[in-house]
Amino acid sequence: xxxxxxxLVPFIGAGFLVSCGESETPASAPELSFEESFxxxxxxxxxxxxxxxxxxxxxxxxxLSLTVPGVTIRGAGMDESILSFTNQAQGAEGLLxxxxxxxxxxxxxxxxxxxxxKVNESTNVTIRRVRTEWTNGPDSENGxxxxxxxxxxxxxxxxxxxxxxxxxxxxxxxxxxxxxxxxRAEYNVAGIEIENSTFADVYxxxxxxxxxxxxxxxxxxxxxxxxxxxxxxxxxxxRNNTENFAPEGAIxxxxxxxxxxxVLANDNIEVYENExxxxxxxxxxxxxxxxxxxTIDDPNYDPFPEQIYIHDNEYRGGGTAPRHRFxxxxxxxxxxxxxxxxxxxxxxxxxxxxxxxxxxxxxxxSFLNLKGGLDPADVSYDPEPHSCTLPxxxxxxxxxxxxx
Length: 404
What we know:
It contains 2 helices and 33 strands. It is mainly beta.
């Protein structure tokens, strides 16, 4: 049976002071502020508790944390119940959760110094109708991540909004069994990012006004590698032309403004029935981590994307302002807009190249193979070598509360 906790009101047992044969009741202790009472609720929570956040803007100066499994944090709506960290003086996150069977819904987390909502090493995570936002707009001083589950399993992000993150608005990293749906990412460096993760479905989302709309990455030197089996479908990915405002040194700082979908070194990806339009650099780009001569010092890392199946998408405009350095060099020679799909062209030595990038049977989509980018005049526009299909990826099925 769930316990609903609305406020923690301090209770001081009555005591008596005896003086000259008379008794007095001491003055009651001052009531805790909402910031203090909310943190105490998180510390003293029991599995099954529902901690409610009433409507209003609630100001916090320190990070919040939850380590108890089976807890729900529930507000009155993402525009009604606001946890504001505008004056945050302590802590690296807004809310840090290291607990299984966690649900958070119907609230907002604003203006944190670091990440807004971080969930680490947790199983069964539901993030529903949560907004994370830096209200000053794109700024390299903003926190890196908005909604940020990492090294977790069975993750549902549904109906949420992420705005203004200096790295990724909605990010799931080093995790497995992931669904991101019905959400909106806007004015982040990366709108939605799936990194070093397996079995992810990203669908029915809107990614707009980011530097890059959707990123599917696999990077070296991380504890979990071998990202694969992500489906990106039924999304609207458009006008992701915001200048890159990532702080210096962040890998996402390499994402060119105007990028719709970027697949980097990930395998078994299916991209279909999305709408791409007006992404100035390129609508879709696929390439190896080593494109451009980047070196690798991780012997366990595979930098080459393989089995990328792209089919049945709709494209309108885009490619009018190339920004990737190889696309800029190519554009100077070609003097035309970037094709809708660009492949870097690097492959693993000895690899079967027949199904690295498949565009369906008889593809008509505009296509560019950069052939490694060494000679901007030596490229291919022919999609016919990529006239192939791959087995459809299975839907991700979650066994967690709220996945209906």
